[in-house]
Amino acid sequence: PPPPPPPPPPPLHPSPTRRSSDLVAFTAETDSLNMSILGPDATPGTEEFDLYIKEVRNEMVAKAGQKCTAIRRIIAPASIAGDVVKALSTALGEVRIGNPGLKEVDMGALASQGQRDEVRERIADLATEAEIVFGGSDDFEVVDADSKKGAFFMPTLLHCDKPLSSKAVHSVEAFGPVSTVLPYDNLDEAIELAKLGGGSLAGSIVSSDNEAVRKLVIGTAAFHGRMV
């Protein structure tokens, strides 16, 4: 005999329909591929460029990069994307990994070895569309700790030269000290790249050009929990 029909769906809760002026509140928070945009005016040698490199580096290594508001997508002008990669690689090369109880150590271990393996797998996914330009290696020095037992991971930077036609860089999160440089040719492209993440907890813009900042904020704010 045929299987019995499925039971009818439960009735809708009356509050949202009968009390439309007093709707039930709902809040959800998820990890997200937060972005930071470097303005076209912030060229190498400016205070804004130096600030951007400093903040991206800090966001990548704070809590070993395991924070929901870490910068995952580095949206920078295509004309200076190479300078961003070079400056960030230099800054990340100075990060000391090891026992976080020591003052000279900048970054400790990830939450677990399982999490470390998860980050490696996600980097492999990202590497199908982006090039690893710094890190991605198990060969690095660890201060006052056992690299075999601890879940230590080297800060890793990627560069995607076709971010508008890529998918993984906007949907895959390696929840560790990992970020990807996404170059843009104009402000409209920067806005589109920010939106391709599908929404995130936080976004930031570094620029001293008020008109550029205004356009970027208006174009991207609806996709981020907060803008800095």
Can you describe what's shown?
- This protein is of the alpha/beta class and 228 residues long.
- Helices cover 32% and strands 17% of the residues.
- It contains seven helices and nine strands; from the N terminus they run αβαβαβαβββαβαβαβ.
- α2 packs across α3 and α6 (187-196) runs parallel beside α7 (210-220).
- The mean pLDDT is 92.
Task: Please supply descriptive tags for the structure shown above.
single chain, 228 residues, alpha/beta, 7-stranded mixed beta sheet, two-stranded parallel sheet, 7 helices, globular
Question: Summary?
Answer:
With 228 residues, the chain is an alpha/beta fold. The chain is 32% helix and 17% strand.
**Structural class determined from secondary elements:** alpha/beta
Binned strand content: 15-25%
Q: What about the largest sheet?
A: 7 strands, mixed
Please state the CA-atom Rg, rounded to the nearest Å: 21 Å
Break the fold down into its secondary structure elements and pairings:
Blueprint: H1 14-18, E1 35-38, H2 47-61, E2 73-77, H3 81-93, E3 97-98, H4 113-126, E4 131-134, E5 142-143, E6 156-159, H5 168-171, E7 178-184, H6 187-196, E8 200-206, H7 210-220, E9 224-227
Parallel strand pairs: 1-2, 1-8, 2-7, 3-5, 6-7, 8-9
Antiparallel strand pairs: 4-6
